[in-house]
Amino acid sequence: MASDDDSFREFVNTRYTDLLRVAYHLTGSAHEAEDLVQSALVKAMGRWRRIDDPLAYLRRIMINHHTSLWHRYRAREVVTAFFPERPARDTTTAVDERQTVYRAMRALPARTRAVIVLRYLADLPEAEVAAALGCSVGTVKSRASRGLARLRDALAPLATERSVQ
Amino acid sequence: MTLDERVIKVLGDMADDLTPEPDPYDRVRARWRRRRRQRTAAASVGLVALVAAGAMTAVRVQGDNAPNLADESDSNWTHVQAWSERLYESPPRGGLAGDKMYLQALASAVAQQQPAGKYREVRVLFLDDIGPYRIALVALARTAPTPNFWTHASRWLVADRGATVDKLAADATRVGDALEPYVEMELSKGDAGAPVVQIALAAGDCDFESAPWPAVKDWQPEATGSYLARAPQDAKPEWWRVTCDGVMREEGPAPGWLAPEGITEAEYATALSGIRGVRDPVSARDEVMSANGHWGYEVTGLPKVIWQGRISGAGEDANGQMYDGTGTMAAAPAVGGGWRGELSIRYDAIDPVSNGVGSSVSFGTRTDPGDPSSVVVVRLHDTATLVVTPANANGVEVVRGDTVVAQVPAKDAAALLSIGVKPGDVVRARDAAGAVVGTVTVDDDPLPGVSASRWHLE
């Protein structure tokens, strides 16, 4: 058991931030991302030795948990729609872009958002996204396409403004 | 940089500055200990059937193929493994299972793809052409299985109908760590117009039955016996169940997303039309959407929001789970009768101990909680029960035997009791004149309409 615990501790220490990033994009809030990651890790902890690919497993838990319970976070997302404090390199345009994409992400259906996160943030192949979500590759393709189109549409006016400037 | 690349870069930048809270490992361990205590406490209360409290309720999750073995005894795990082994040892099923040469070639091709020494044998358990697809299920026996992990892995292989062995074997998109006793898969649902195929498989001497949703009464045996496959033209909302050796082992909605996305404005209007308490339409809509996705075909109609309002003074249970906040209660008629309900509580502030933002309590009722004259009782914990009353009630009392054990005022169609109700308690709502305007007897029925999986039982 000690070796299992050591392995789990090492995983948490090395992968926590990666999981947190995925969770942040699913929930839209740093606090709720912590909550989601912690819940997923608790679920995984008791069966640690039985998990072949912990990172994939935890992503799947987080997405399933979030897509079934995401409404509880959504109301809060509206209230706390802010980002972590940005470093000084940020320009006004960059902040606008992030706010725009943030809002567009929050407007996506939960499962479409999950596809966007796994495909483009976690950089998983479509097949792995499909496995994580328990759906077909075709579904991943269509959701990714629709979701990215919505984000693109949201960002397009800002991109136009920037090119004019 | 294209606009798509820009979108992806912005997404990446947004999470760049995230810094975890301190001591993530210790916080996980603390939560884990709390959860174990909660479960132990819940089991000892004996009211699990009345309400199931906690941060989340159990859902049948498509694609999450690892069971919660941490909560099962070694004996239970042994039973699960035995059923998995029976499935592995079963003869191949499916319309093409008689093509021995194809099966052998497919097993060989899959075996050659695996790392040397990892698996000792590959078997094809299912092969068929269904709709536009050729579909196979292969099981891989681990060379050196560990005692607490699955003995077999599995792969669903999908290619075009009539595909060659090489093309079918080349599909590596549906890889499972396990060969569970009951295996199911759905293809393509979610793409508008895409053909939907559903398949499930159990050990060779089990029997499948199906019953159309929403009635789920007229169970009919499946001609295919120990497996079930639905071509696109046959896929429909329905329940499946599996009986082995005379014991029902699996029962629930056919595989797939739990419910279709998309609720019309008219449906939302209906779902929000009878809210008691203090209305919050935004939260109410969210609750309807979530409950719809969560319950799916375990209920027979769209959820309705029953009540909304503040819960103040419920405090926390013995395990630290908080119950104060803003509540939204929704319910829907359940498959098999009764109503399925959930009370969601959104905290005013993040719980500093658990980092939680809210909690929920599932409950079942025998009578329609959407009836404005109904009394809905939800036990939160040992010293708190929420009672939703008719709008004209101004007080609630609880009678246990011949004794009134609690009496509190009601406001905004709700009252909070400082006791945990018990089965047999009679809860009455009275108006200002003292007349009874609603009453209910607390029961201990199991949650209605819940899927069942009993492979862990002897």
UniProtKB/TrEMBL annotation, chain A:
A cellular-component GO term for this protein: DNA-directed RNA polymerase complex
Matching CDD domains: Sigma70_r4
Residue limits of the RNA polymerase sigma factor 70 region 4 type domain? Answer: 99-151
The record, for Pfam families, names: Sigma70_r2, Sigma70_r4_2
Question: What keyword terms does UniProt attach to this protein?
Answer: DNA-binding, DNA-directed RNA polymerase, Sigma factor, Transcription, Transcription regulation
Domain RNA polymerase sigma-70 region, residue spans:
14-68
InterPro entries hit by this protein: RNA_pol_sigma-70-like, RNA_pol_sigma-70_dom, RNA_pol_sigma-E_actinobac, RNA_pol_sigma70_r2, RNA_pol_sigma70_r4_t2, RNA_pol_sigma_r2, RNA_pol_sigma_r3/r4-like, WH-like_DNA-bd_sf
Give the protein family. Belongs to the sigma-70 factor family. ECF subfamily.
Q: Which NCBIfam families match?
A: SigE-fam_strep (TIGR02983), sigma70-ECF (TIGR02937)
Protein's name in the database: DNA-directed RNA polymerase sigma-70 factor
Automatic annotation (TrEMBL), chain B:
What is this protein's name?
Uncharacterized protein
| Protein keywords | Membrane, Transmembrane, Transmembrane helix
Query: Which lineage is the organism of this entry classified under, starting from the top rank?
Result: Bacteria, Bacillati, Actinomycetota, Actinomycetes, Micromonosporales
| Membrane-spanning parts | 41-59
Its source organism is Phytohabitans aurantiacus
